[in-house]
Amino acid sequence: MGSQLGLGRLFGAAVAAVAGTWVGGATAQDTTIGVLFLDSQGFFGEIQRGILEGAADEDITLITDNAESDPARESEFLDTVIGAGAAAAIISPVSTQASVPAVERVVDAGIPVVCYNTCLAEEDTERLAAGLVTTDQAELGRVVGEVAAAALAGASARIGMLNCDRYEACQQRKAGFLATLDAAGVDYEVVADQEGFIADAATQVATEMLTADPDITHIWTANEGGTIGAVLGVQAAGQEGKTVVYGTDITMQIAQMLQDGSVLMAVAAQQPREMGREAIRMALSMMAGGEIEERLVHVATLVVDSADPDGIQGWIDAQ
Hints:
Elements: H1 12-18, E1 32-37, H2 42-55, E2 61-66, H3 71-83, E3 88-91, H4 100-108, E4 113-116, H5 122-128, E5 131-134, H6 137-151, E6 156-163, H7 168-183, E7 187-195, H8 199-212, E8 218-221, H9 224-236, E9 244-248, H10 252-260, E10 264-269, H11 272-287, E11 296-298, E12 302-305, H12 309-318
Parallel strand pairs: 1-2, 1-3, 3-4, 4-5, 5-11, 6-7, 6-8, 8-9, 9-10
Antiparallel strand pairs: 10-12
Helix pairs in contact: 1-5, 2-11, 3-4, 6-7, 8-9, 10-12
């Protein structure tokens, strides 16, 4: 969920550290890539799908596992990747700090690391990662902020927020959203800002938020779970027609909520499947000894708006 921005100097040292150690004559080890998934559902499930699709027609072997947000499990898997003599590793580290020793071992073994969606803290990313494929997190907040600002022109808003501020990426999304409202001159007040990024917990948070303050007119959410939870919370609190939601991320369930259009107005959507495809392309290029022109790749952000039923259906059809 987290990601780092402002990495203009990214990856030079990391590439120099591994260059010449993993490019060479083809062996069974040279065609093996270790891939660590964070989940098999929703956003991360789509990343997994993109990686597997990108690898399908290639003469390579994938070693895969699901970290389940457990640094110990991540560390054990990366040791397996080292033992297999893999040519590359594709990961989204479980922790910006706790994951560093395991990633260091991979790089020290001469195996380049490609991060998807998230990486380590900026300094460690520069030092250890050979590439990062992610979303411009501030842009993710800005694009849905533009839709909200247009709808709020000439009106005022009492805003509640469901955040995932424990992750840097979510902080950047929130900052992008609020900066866009400010730039548009929107008259608003943030009256509640609480953590809520897992759907069940976010539903309870949103319900209690609206019960405590039924005058909240808008809820902004930082991720998929928060978006689902906010919509369900509005419904549970009997606030349909009084409170609307602007969210982040999209799934089939969220697309159906947009089609309904009574609560969820718009979402900023990442393209996780393309993120997965780009990560495997980057790893394959390094394995072939090719140059990587862009080691920091931002996958384009989409806006899916309840006012655009054709756009919603287009997203559904693409799935």
